[in-house]
Amino acid sequence: MPSGETTAPLPGDVLCYRVAVADMPACSQGERETGSPWKDELGLEMYSSAVTLSDMEMFVFPELLYALVLANIMSPRLWRWREDPWFRRIGRLSPGRRIMRLKQYIMDNYDFNLDLETWGLTRKQRELERFRKWIDPRVIAESNALFGYEGDRYYFDLDIRRHFGLDKYDGDVIPYWKTETLEAMDAFRFRPGYARGAGECVSLSALYAAAVFVVCGISLDDIFIMTTPLHSQNFVVVGDGLITNNRRVLTKTMWFNGSELSMKARRALRHERVTLVGHRTGYIHQVYQTATISEEAYRRFRERLTEFLQADPAADLLINFLRAHRDYQNCFQISHRHHGRTRYIPLEVAFHYEHGRPYRLNDRTRDQLLAEIDEMECFAEPIEDRVCLEEFGDWFRRQTSRAGSGSVDELARLMDCQRSRLPQVMRDLTAFLKIEPRLPDPRCKRFVTRSAIEIDPDMSREEIVDRLENARAANAAADLAFYAFRDLSICDWRPFLKAAVERNPVILEGTADMSDQEAFSWLCSIPDESIYDGTRLAQPDEVWNFKRGDGVEKALCAADVLRHRHPGKAVMITVMPDRAVVECAGILKWEFVSRKGLQAELIVAG
What is the distance between the alpha carbons of residues 50 and 46, in angstroms, rounded to a whole number? Predict the structure, then answer.
């Protein structure tokens, strides 16, 4: 674009801009299959969404999920993890143990955060209208809890609006949950009440996927990201498989251990449809007919995940099941030889004795645990109306195939619980041993071949960035990754500017009671430090939340505030290598110091 030329706003768009030729990225000027991707209305919406990365934006534009993973892979912060003493000699460990070491690092350094204050609020109708041209609002309503989706009854039994503190607002108000980059996750340390980094579930799954690649050296071929309407998890094809769940990691053994953690992790895959699966070869989405993921990669994912989610019946799994389902414990008793006599113990009593002791009912310490149970809590004869756990376990051990409906019926006939609950126990036990994931059906999709992401864990960061930059013209996720990465020296400014002045409600709320001069004074008072390195930029709400920003970022904050306070007045931002100047036509002129080395002229039309 020639210097000084101003683009005309798109229909319904209030933004226009001009940028010096030296700042225009070559790749954004090139033509792709549908032309320069940000120049039409759909492209501008998608590329600006790569900056804000809200949960809904990822649902509508599925390429964004992997774009965030790639942005984290490019992050110098992530590569510095490899220098941490915690990861010294990590290459000597097995792949599974490497990931467990990574898990502890993430547990120690990041919290799960899903509050309303961080990224503010929006309205259902506004968001539905925003995407109406590209996706049916009814589809969104059926796929997102805040729009009416009720796949997992647990949340609705809690009253989801009350659970998240939304009950004080009218029913149209919903959270503007955004997915954080690694830099934004780390910046939570600057917020009151946070001693370490933080992020929501999609942020954590994207961080895990990137770190498993960069720190653990696992190929992207083996890393799959899966989202449901309420959650995001990863499946890593290592050994029997691993699932990441928020900050934690579950092996197949842990998946079936009956702990509160594993039962919560199971809930998403038992009750929810998997809306989206992302991979280095592409994605498959419940809504869209076209799938860009490799058919072979998706077949492998489905087979390995299905194997992970089912287990052969074994006595220890029975104990795990009953540990998780406490209401069924009063159907069972345990027999135990003690001082030459057989005594019978209610199962719930035995489980109670596990607390605070290093012994467990389903390992080699079982006899030690049972020996500690007080005689007053034991019976000399079998307890009426209870099934003997040993007899039940013997039946399990005789099985050579997975528990099916026939074997369950057989067991129900052999052992009668007078409480008539055994058939229900067996139904839930069968469900415990096998989850059928509700994945996008490949038979209903049209698979198209796209250029895949071709990077290797043995590459240096610089080699990976070069490889991704060369892939931008052919791979949408790679191109969008640079917008999620926020490097304005190699990205067009217009999507970033659109996101800055349209989707940052927190700073507007925070400065609502300030005069223009007070807002300027506040911006001048916070440290001139960006949470992003180099020529990368934060959005206004990140500056407000983390109370720091470079001069260019402060100028964008000012433009956002002034645009909303003075409708009809154009706001101009002049970005120079060492400073940024904001002018609101005929009202004011503010200047901030910058170290970003960027150069551009931006206009936000009134």
Answer: 6
Degrees, nearest 5: CA angle 38-67-104: 155
> Contact 333/382 with Cβ under 8 angstroms?
yes
Give me the phi and psi of 456, to 5 degrees please: -125, 145
Q: What is the pLDDT of residues 62-98, one digit of tens each?
A: 999 999 999 999 999 999 999 999 999 999 999 999 9
534: number of Cβ within 10 Å: 15
Q: Which two tokens stand for residue 433?
A: 């041993």
Phi, psi of 502 (to 5 degrees): -115, -20
Write the single-letter amino acid at 191: R
Q: Closest Cα to residue 573, out of 16, 43, 14, 38?
A: 16
> Which letter does DSSP use for residue 141 in this model?
H
Measured between alpha carbons, how far is 466 from 204 in angstroms, rounded to an integer?
25
Tens digit of each residue's pLDDT (9 = 90 or more) over 303-349:
999 999 998 877 788 899 999 999 889 888 999 888 889 999 999 99
CA distances from 532 to 189, 506, 527 (A): 14, 19, 14
Cα–Cα distance list, 213 to 203, 221, 314, 546 (Å): 16, 10, 34, 28
- Sole residue written with tokens 């799994």: 317
Give the length of the chain.
606
What letter represents residue 42's amino acid? L
Q: How far apart are the first and last CA of the chain?
A: 23
Task: Judge whether 453 and 280 are in contact, CB under 8 Å.
Answer: yes
Closest to 545 measured CA to CA, from 188, 199, 204, 201: 188
- Tokens for 502? 């349209």
Neighbouring C-beta atoms of residue 86, cutoff 10 Å:
14
The count of other CB atoms within 10 Å of the CB of residue 339 is 7
Select from 67, 49, 29 the least CA-distant residue to 478.
Answer: 67
> Residue 171: which of 230, 135, 125, 136 has the closest Cα?
125
Contact in structure between 338 and 380 (CB atoms under 8 Å): no
Q: Does position 374 have pLDDT exceeding 80, yes or no?
A: yes
Distances (CA, A) of 207 to 196, 203, 537: 15, 6, 19
Q: How many CB atoms lie within 10 A of CB 579?
A: 16
* Alpha carbons 153 and 216: distance in angstroms, whole number: 37
Which tokens go with 208?
A: 């895990």
Close Cβ partners of 265 (under 8 Å, ≥ 6 residues apart) = 233, 243, 245, 248, 250, 255
Q: Kindly tell me the sign of the dihedral angle through the C-alpha atoms of 260, 440, 139, 49.
A: positive
Predicted TM-score (pTM) of this structure:
0.89
Tokens of 92: 């000597």
Phi, psi of 345 (to 5 degrees): -125, 130
Dig out the tokens for 288 from the structure.
């869209």
- Name the 3-class secondary structure at 72: helix
Task: Say how far apart CA 139 and CA 150 lie, in whole Å.
Answer: 13
Cα–Cα distance measured from residue 575 to residue 595, given in angstroms and rounded to the nearest whole number: 11
Residue 555's SS3 state is helix
pLDDT single digits (tens) 471-506: 999 999 999 999 999 999 999 999 999 999 999 999
Q: Which residues on adjacent β-strands are paired with residue 233?
A: 226, 245
Per-residue pLDDT, 409: 58
Q: How far apart are CA 450 and CA 479, in angstroms?
A: 14
Report d(CA 577, CA 595) in Å as an integer: 7
